[in-house]
């Protein structure tokens, strides 16, 4: 059991991303204006609807801007679709059993769509959090259009926030991906021959290839970046014969705004970058077991919470939805991280409550600070980011009015434990042997010889698809 479901390394902190501050600042820039406007109007109770759109700014930060524009638009539409379904269900029935079932189905749909489209972090969990919370918020049919309009307006602002950096650095994501590939290849050439270093280097090259493919550019900058990625591939194929010095120099030059260094074309500029993903339907079919697992785990977690008399079963539902990864070992690790992060986050909430309860302004500012902290820390390890996410989610529930902290803490702890245990049980009951693309199979020699690469997993840093805010 210890070898299949290890504890070692699950809580180890990784290195922060080189753009860790961008998702954090984007989250604050997208969330702050609507929340402050509602605060000025005395309608913080409507913040859930604006946050549905604002939280879309968390997505697609590693994608080139042309691809990011499309991805963010689809995220906003997906968020609005899930919210609309939840609001409609909430307006038609107050039966908690039915609402949990609807929430479980929505969670399963959101999970498989995010995995099939490879949207990347924070994946399905933000979508599930919003739709599940909306299910258990009193609603009437006549108010749904207005609430959806608020979410759509905030989503449009989130789209603008996500695209704004492109005005200053239109090729920023491709440059960063290429620089990482060059640095990783240089590290291998310098003698770092461990399995982890090899896998990291191959994944970095794959990510650079995929970034250039999704950018689909034909500019001089794009072609120059292609040639540099080929150099990284060649160095990775024969690290003993590669000189790391020019690779490091090129990486530093690419990261800035200076012109991309020109190198000789070793393969021809018409080399195909990577295989494009197949039709969405073909990618959805293999995920059917994952959909069943997610729906079952979320439903059982919600019903267990109801049986225990918890007033917010959607917390247990979201906890279960946040666990499911490519295999049981990763799911187990996510469960451990979720429990540890939430329990520590509850303690942070207890410490913040006296300050947050001094007034609505303090409440909103605390939530914004926690939002920044969650995105800044999540890349280090999921549990560390959850330490900020948990108190933020608890404080958000008080936007409609201050509540008893003791009750909130008790319900959150119980729902976390219930959701994690039931979610893991569902993972064992419904095995999902997804095809996991391993860097070692791609083979650096194949990459250098053909100029092709398998598509990397959505988050090469953590091996999952759910990095980011996870309430």
Question: What can you tell me about this protein's structure?
Answer:
This protein is an all-alpha fold and 471 residues long. It has 19 helices and no strands. The longest helix is centred in the last third of the chain and has 29 residues, at 328-356. The two termini are 29 Å apart. The model is unreliable at 269-273 and 434-470 (pLDDT under 50).
Distance between the termini: 29 Å
So how many helices? 19
- Major sheet: none
Give start-end ranges of low-pLDDT stretches: 269-273, 434-470
**Which secondary-structure class do the elements indicate?**
mainly alpha
Helix content: 55-70%
**Beta-sheet strand percentage?**
under 5%
| Overall radius of gyration | 23 Å
Mean pLDDT: 85
> Would you count the extended β strands for me?
0
Shape: globular
Q: Encode the helix/strand succession as letters.
A: HHHHHHHHHHHHHHHHHHH
SSE blueprint:
Elements: H1 21-41, H2 47-54, H3 65-92, H4 96-117, H5 124-135, H6 144-163, H7 172-189, H8 195-215, H9 220-237, H10 244-255, H11 280-284, H12 288-307, H13 313-323, H14 328-356, H15 360-378, H16 382-396, H17 405-429, H18 439-442, H19 444-450
Helix pairs in contact: 1-2, 1-6, 1-15, 2-5, 2-6, 3-4, 3-5, 3-6, 4-5, 4-12, 4-13, 5-13, 7-8, 7-9, 7-10, 8-9, 9-10, 9-19, 12-13, 12-17, 13-17, 14-16, 14-17, 15-16
Short description:
The chain is mostly helical. Helices cover 67% and strands 0% of the residues.
